[in-house]
Amino acid sequence: MKEVKINTEIIKLDAFLKWCGIASMGTEAKIYISDEQIKVNGEVCTQRGKKLKINDIVSFDGEDYKIV
Description:
By secondary structure, the chain is an alpha+beta fold. It has one domain (2-67): RNA-binding S4 domain (Structural Genomics Hypothetical 15.5 Kd Protein In mrcA-pckA Intergenic Region, Chain A). The protein contains two helices and seven strands, in the order ββααβββββ. The chain has helices at residues 13-19, 26-34; strands at residues 2-4, 10-12, 39-40, 43-44, 51-53, 57-60, 63-67. A five-stranded mixed sheet has the order 1-7-6-3-4, with no helix packed on it. A two-stranded antiparallel sheet has the order 2-5. A hairpin with a 2-residue loop joins β6 (57-60) and β7 (63-67). It is globular, with a radius of gyration of 10 Å. It starts with a strand and ends with a strand. This is RNA-binding S4 domain-containing protein.
């Protein structure tokens, strides 16, 4: 599991995907989310604006990213 440090209390899912390097652009993040390739805390998430917080776990392509 990779740990990703954020500098704020919350971060939106699409911004997090760019922050941690899963997506290089917002449109790429949007595609991953709408194609149901992203899980948040074990559940598929289709909300680009989903607010993530410390200890949430985002999963993509067999990798887990824990927000710290």
